[in-house]
């Protein structure tokens, strides 16, 4: 119950606002709120949802696929490279994954749940970008990650993180009352 209580307190916007400067440079100080059991229950629910996010029902987002006609750069190349974008527009609720794929219908509340200084959805987009290593040996021999190979998995992950973010925001709004 104590761990669950602390997890809930660390998600409380009033706590984050009050101790914002301290949280950047010191260990968090945990206040004792009335209704210990209520806070522990919120923390338990949040922790369970965040740990088991793979099992949550994905949020119904619209995935728009358009085929871009491109020519192969090299002879006998099976597929031309599709340019990866991974750009989000929070106001319109749209994510451009690549030249062919767009996800729409992301509610504004889904962007409110933050992991540090960015939303959980933005964190996912940043983690799955294709990055070119500076070391030429590593770039040549070990840089095998291609976004296109994991695109379907990432779309499902975005749907699940969107659902988790919305549920987390509901808990946070309940804490503020």
Outline of the structure:
The protein has helices at residues 2-11, 13-18, 20-25, 36-51, 120-127, 136-141, 147-176; strands at residues 62-65, 84-89, 94-98, 101-104, 114-115, 118-119. The protein has 177 residues and is an alpha+beta fold.
Ends distance: 21 Å
Number of helices: 7
Taken as a percent bin, the fraction of beta residues is 5-15%
Shape: elongated
What oligomeric state best describes the polypeptide chains here? single chain
Q: Sheet with the most strands?
A: 4 strands, antiparallel
The poorly predicted ranges are: none
Order of helices and strands: HHHHEEEEEEHHH
Q: Count every beta strand, where a strand is a DSSP E run of 2 or more residues.
A: 6
Mean of residue pLDDT values: 88
Keywords:
alpha+beta; four-stranded antiparallel β-sheet; two-stranded antiparallel ribbon
Q: What report would you give on this structure?
A:
The chain is α+β, with helices and mostly antiparallel strands. The chain is built from 7 helices and 6 strands; from the N terminus they run ααααββββββααα. It has a 4-stranded antiparallel β-sheet with strand order 1-4-3-2, with helices on one face. A hairpin with a 4-residue loop joins strand 2 (84-89) and strand 3. Helix 1 packs across helix 4 and helix 4 (36-51) packs antiparallel against helix 7. The radius of gyration is 20 Å and the shape is elongated. It starts with a helix and ends with a helix.
